[in-house]
Amino acid sequence: MKNKELNSLKEYKYGFTTQIEDFKAPKGLTEETVRFISKIKKEPKWLLDWRLRAFKRLKSLKEPNWQKPKYPKIQYQDLYYFSSPKSLKDKPKSLDEVDPKLIETYKKLGIPLDEQKRLSGVAVDAVFDSVSVATTFKGELTKKGIIFCSISEAIQKHPSLVKKYLGSVIPLTDHYFATLNSAVFTDGSFVYIPPNVKCPMELSTYFRINASQTGQFERTLIIADKGSYVSYLEGCTAPMRDENQLHAANVELIALDDAEIKYSTVQNWYPGDEKGNGGIYNFVTKRGVCKGKNSKISWTQVETGSAITWKYPSCILQGDNSVGEFYSIAITNNHQKADTGTKMIHLGKNTKSKIISKGISAGNADNTYRGLVDINRKALHSRNYTQCDSLLMGNSCGAHTIPYIKNKNASSIIEHEATTSKINEDQLFYCNQRGLNQEEAVSLIVNGFCKEVLQQLPMEFAVEAQKLVSISLEGSVG
Amino acid sequence: MLKIINLKASTGGKDILKGLNLEIKTGEVHAIMGPNGSGKSTLANVLSGKPGYDISGEINFEGKKLNNVPIEERAQNGIFLAFQYPLEIPGVNTSNFLRTAINSIRKAKGEKELDALSFIKLIKEKASELKIDEKFLSRQLNVGFSGGEKKKNEILQMKLLEPKLSVLDETDSGLDIDALRIVADGVNSYKNKDNSFLIITHYQRLLDYIKPDYIHVLSNGKIIKTGRSELGQQLEKTGYKYLN
Questions:
Q1: Which residues contact A91 (CB under 8 A, 6 or more apart)?
Q2: Domain range enclosing A294
Q3: How far is the C-alpha of A410 from the C-alpha of A68, rounded, in Å?
Q4: Which end of chain B is more exposed for a tag (fewer CB within 10 A), N or C?
């Protein structure tokens, strides 16, 4: 009985697909595909030109290969670059008009939109495949002048903001996957917070990969104008799949003078089976710029899913006295691989950054923290504090810490602390002796290990994340 | 309640317990004394099922053979070990830990789990009996606790989990006089005709507060002498030497 329960828990909890007719672009990565996407989204010419520039650039770029996890060659010509649930071609105006099957899917995921709307005070811009299906709480946000919509809608309704900031943090020439995204991005979220407005609720988007063989190329752009504040949540689950799926999102954050952006992610995509078959490739580019003085950007991530996670949410600390933070939990089990960390680029004076990374590795998994702290010559009196802790479970997993540290002026200080430990047998014994079984004990100890990061998450997420941490490690000890 | 027959235990090829016999009846308090290295802590570990020992002989608890029962099941069945060196678990809130523990045990017994409010009420009551500050409950489990606080925390857990057999492994060592009295009072207030104690100690001092029914002397992996509570006072005067 006990084993049976454990086995069913170990299987991916959200492994199901919804039967919805897809509306797909032709297969393959061609100029036709780029034009098709732009056309179907009725984009202005400047954006089509921008996409085409990216596409042209892409042809001269090579996929990077310096990362630790290797993966089989991606057949870009076999992927579909656009798909949307067909029934949404005429966009629904309210939840009632949304395909009931979509709503059903969200319910299986435990995120019933209608309940969330009423109960949690969270506005949700839900991305199902590549088209936004519902945006809630718009009214309340609009009153404050906050724009929270899909990026496609923003392109139509707020073109000047999009034109000004799109690609300003991650240029379209940046690197292979970022450039690929620029050429073929389909949808994503757009947030603008006007000057001196504190966003009254957590803004949240649930992503979900659904259509088979569809690469997901989300594009998110968040702008916090002077003196404003926003907290944004991103959470993901995906249905069970055999073939690998590529996800190459771009997220750009811009914080102007005295503004603060808090960006939290819980990533729980399909990690592949216990033998390492299938699973998502999560190759995401996330970057924020503290453009104004006294601005702050804080990244918090809980990465438990995907076959390969390869991402470095970064901060460019351009404004004087700006602050960048990165809090990360990366859990790899079975054959999962993660190469993740951050980049803190200090350009302004008195800039501060803090990095807290907790890597947990179990089974045959491999977990790498890779981070850059770069304090520029002119970034006088800047500070960085980095703490990287790795926890190993069992004898077949790996943990690696690769910090790159550059300090180009004598008035700045960088601190780096790192620990690697195995889960302590005596701690487990202590917990068992108090009646906790092995799974409960591991979950308790690991959640304790991650606490500094978990407590950075907004309440709504913290509970979910704690459960996720436990579920991800089930069956990994004993 | 507990019956140990010809128990042998070795670890890393070294024999530690070499044929130990012991019977504890319901409602009895037994103390085990003995020189360093005689196997006292090993006995406590083996009773609670700590891995890493090769075992032969038999441990019976309430008529059931324990030898291959997992640690948590023994705990759920009512065996509690107050650790000589309680473990620190960083990041884990003490009261969360206690609630998880009590609910694991309740679940195993088929009882309803305690909700947050009833738990808080219960824990506050137990903590105040042991003169434990409430603030202590929101600290990380045993992290930065003084020796005395750690031991009090063990007794708090005992009172909360309500075991049938409590094994106290040198709970008195490292305690000042006041803390010793509080710990002893804690044990005495929990002691009744339905539960039993096995108290491992080096000193008569604790036994002045908690009156044992029997005192056993463990030496070189065997019980070499058993007596009533006077034996403790005698040992205090003469040391273990005179027994040999």
A1: none
A2: 2-473
A3: 33
A4: C
Asked if B157 lies within 8 A of A452 by C-beta distance, the reply is no
Residue A268 lies in a domain: yes
- Residue A319 phi/psi, 5-degree rounding, is -75, 145
Does the beta carbon of A72 lie under 8 angstroms from any beta carbon of chain B? no
Question: Is A432 in contact with B72 (Cβ distance < 8 A)?
Answer: yes
Considering the domain boundaries, does residue A247 fall inside one?
Answer: yes
The number of folded domains in chain A is 1
d(CA A106, CA A134): 12
The distance of A457 to chain B (nearest Cα, Å) reads 15
| Prediction ipTM score | 0.95
Length in residues, chain A:
478
Sort out which chain B residues have CB atoms less than 8 A from A426's CB and list them: 87
> How does DSSP classify residue B111?
P
Residue A107 has pLDDT above 90, yes or no: no
CB nearest A435 (choices: B51, B92, B105) = B105
Q: Which tokens sit at A375?
A: 């304090």
A32-41, A184-193, A452-461, range with the lowest pLDDT: A452-461
Whether residue A478 lies inside any domain: the answer is no
Q: Does residue A127 surpass a pLDDT of 60?
A: no
- DSSP 8-state code for residue A409: S
A66 class by beta-carbon count within 10 Å (0-12 exposed, 13-18 middle, 19+ buried)? exposed
- Position of tokens 């009254």? A200
What is the amino acid identity at position A82?
F
The packing angle between helices B147-161 and B177-190, to 10°, is 10
The set of residues, in sequence order, having a beta carbon less than 8 Å from that of A278 and lying 6+ positions away, is: A240, A241, A242, A243, A244, A270, A272, A307
